[in-house]
Amino acid sequence: xxxxxxxxxxxxxxxxxxxxxxxxxxxxxxxxxxxxxxxxxxxxxxxxxxxxxxxxxxxxxxxxxxxxxxxxxxxxxxxxxxxxxxxxxxxxxxxxxxxxxxxxxxxxxxxxxxxxxxxxxxxxxxxxxxxxxxxxxxxxxxxxxxxxxxxxxxxxxxxxxxxxxxxxxxxxxxxxxxxxxxxxxxxxxxxxxxxxxxxxxxxxxxxxxxxxxxxxxxxxxxxxxxxxxxxxxxxxxxxxxxxxxxxxxxxxxxxxxxxxxxxxxxxxxxxxxxxxxxxxxxxxxxxxxxxxxxxxxxxxxxxxxxxxxxx
Length: 311
Known about the structure:
The chain is of the alpha/beta class and about 300 residues long. The chain has twelve helices and eight strands. The chain has an eight-stranded parallel β-barrel, surrounded by six helices. Helix 2 (about 60-75) links the parallel strand 2 and strand 3. Helix 4 (about 120-130) runs parallel beside helix 6 and helix 6 (about 150-155) packs parallel to helix 7. About 50% of the residues are buried. The model has no long low-confidence stretch (mean pLDDT about 95).
C-alpha cells in the first residue's frame, strides 16, 4: 500500500544544474539537494522531472543523477525518480535501474512526441508498472507531451496494484482533477502539478485524496507553500487565499517572454538565493538582464532578498 504521508505535501522537481559548457554539474546537484533539505523547502525531491530538464538528459546522465543525489542526502529526505522516456523500452529500462538503486517510487510521464492514443498509453504505463517492484506515479502534462491521460484511462491504470497516483498539470484543464478523483479508488492519490492551482486542487479533493504539490517554485518558497496548504486545510481559507494571491505573481513572472518551461528563470532566482543552480541546457536559454531584473524585483517585493538583491 502506498503511504503518501511518507512523501509529504511539498514534492520538489529538482532542477538539474548545467555548467557553462552544458555538462551536468553533479557536485552542484548534490549541493542543491542538500540545501533543499537544510532549508526545509522540500518534503520529497523528484529527480529528472520537467523542471529537471529530463528531456535533454541522456539515459546515463539520469542514472548518474539518481546515484549522486541519493548519496548526497541519504535517508534525510525521500527521493522519487523520474523514469519516463519517449519510448516504452527505455522507460522500462530506467524504471528497472531506479529500482535496483533503491528507489521505491517513480514518476512516469506520458510518452512525448509520438502522441500515442489512449490504448497505447495504457500499454505503455502497464509495461512501466510491470517492470519493477516499485510504486508508480503517472504524470500528465499535455502541454509538453501532446496527449492527455483521459479519466477512463486513469481509471483503468488505477486497477494496476502498484500504480498509486497521478501528477496532474492542472491549469489547462482545472476540473480534470475532479474527474480523476471520481474515476479512481479512494486510495488513489492526485498531486497538483501546477503552482498556480494548489488551493483549487485541495478544494476538489481535500486532504485525503490530494497528496500535495509537485512545485518548481518550492525551490524558493517551499516553506511558504506548506504554510498556505496547512492554513487552507485547517479552515483558515482567507489567510490561505491571501498567500496564494501573494505568490501568484512570482509564479507568473517565471514564464515571462513566453517561456513555457519556467526552469530558466527559476534557476536565476535560485542563484539569487544562494543555490548553485547553473544554466539551462540548450535550446533553453539563461535569463536576460531585463528578465533577471524583474525576477530580482519580485524576490525583493516578497522579502526573499533585500533591495540590493542579496539574500
